[in-house]
Design goal:
Elements (H helix, E strand, L loop, with lengths): L1 H21 L2 H14 L7 H12 L3 H21 L3 H7 L1 E4 L15 E5 L8 H4 L7 E5 L5 H11 L7 E3 L2 H12 L3 E5 L8 E5 L2 E5 L2 H9 L3 E8 L6 E5 L9 H18 L16
Parallel strand pairs: 1-9, 2-5, 2-8, 3-4, 3-5
Antiparallel strand pairs: 6-7, 8-9
């Protein structure tokens, strides 16, 4: 039964991706947003989304519903924008904070780790750095559906021109090999990690991985925060490179600092974060 469900899901995904690819990016993004608002918003999982928003932001019912509604708009747009990632990073993304990269663009064999969260269209963060001739390999969590994974991998890697590593023991070995070779790695740090440590996130304990900090210290490479923002419900983005974290600090301080930064980004535009995450054991 699971295989049949996966195949049905894949047929829908492939059909929609085909439509989105044929449309100009502005129309594809708008159509995806319409699907998010008018279809996905009515899924039962939206109740969990609203619980998370209310518990973390202490919003009133009307504001909670509006944020959830707009979150689905963003997710629908993100999904529709997958076939257009090359165009988005080349022509529709503003990259600021370049000075915080230091000499990195001029030292191609120096490793670095960039971290961000599931904000706006998070798939834009890594390729946007190609504007500075920096290739960033991606660590990602593959979807459970293997057929959907195939098409998303092809879009995410832009037909294999960008390296990707799955979140797994094998993937981590590949990441270590890549860092040894002087490659740059991008990771999203806002997912639950049961083997990690508890970190306060929106006032609730959240199990969090220290791996990105430990790897940066192990390889002595810069650990650079990257913020992604969607501009006015459009397929246009601002990617901000922030100053690298101070790796002389203790791991506990760094994990608190990185998540406080992420929390501030989310508070600035909460509808553009993925409130679907099972981020907090106490809120599921």
């Amino acid at each position: 039964m699971k295989k049949i469900r996966y195949l049905c899901e894949a047929v829908i995904v492939y059909f929609l991706m085909g439509i989105f690819k044929l449309l100009p990016v502005e129309q594809a993004s708008a159509f995806g947003g319409w699907i998010g608002r008018n279809v996905a918003y009515h899924f039962s999982v939206t109740r969990k989304v609203m619980r998370h928003i209310e518990s973390c932001l202490h919003t009133k019912k009307g504001d909670t519903s509006r944020i959830a509604f707009d979150m689905w708009d963003n997710l629908g747009r993100l999904f529709a924008e997958y076939p257009h990632l090359p165009e988005l990073y080349m022509t529709k993304t503003e990259l600021i904070g370049i000075e915080n990269l230091g000499n990195l663009p001029n030292t191609p064999d120096s490793p670095a780790i960039f971290f961000s969260g599931h904000l706006a269209n998070w798939e834009i963060a890594a390729p946007s750095l190609r504007q500075q001739h920096i290739d960033v390999d991606l660590i990602y969590r593959p979807p459970n559906n293997p057929y959907v994974k195939k098409i998303l991998d092809r879009c995410r890697s832009m037909d294999g021109t960008l390296r990707t590593y799955p979140k797994s023991p094998q993937g981590m070995r590949q990441v270590i090999t890549a860092l040894k070779a002087g490659r740059r790695i991008g990771i999203l740090i806002d997912q639950k990690y049961n083997q990690g440590i508890e970190v306060p996130f929106f006032g609730h304990p959240a199990m969090t991985s220290l791996a990105f900090i430990q790897l940066a210290k192990k390889f002595g490479c810069p650990l650079i925060p990257v913020q992604v923002e969607r501009i006015k419900n459009s397929p246009r983005f601002r990617v901000t490179i922030h100053k690298p974290l101070d790796l002389s600090k203790d791991d506990d301080l760094l994990i608190m600092e990185s998540h406080a930064m992420l929390e501030n980004w989310i508070r600035k535009d909460p509808a553009n974060w993925l409130w679907l995450h099972k981020r907090w054991k106490s809120l599921t």
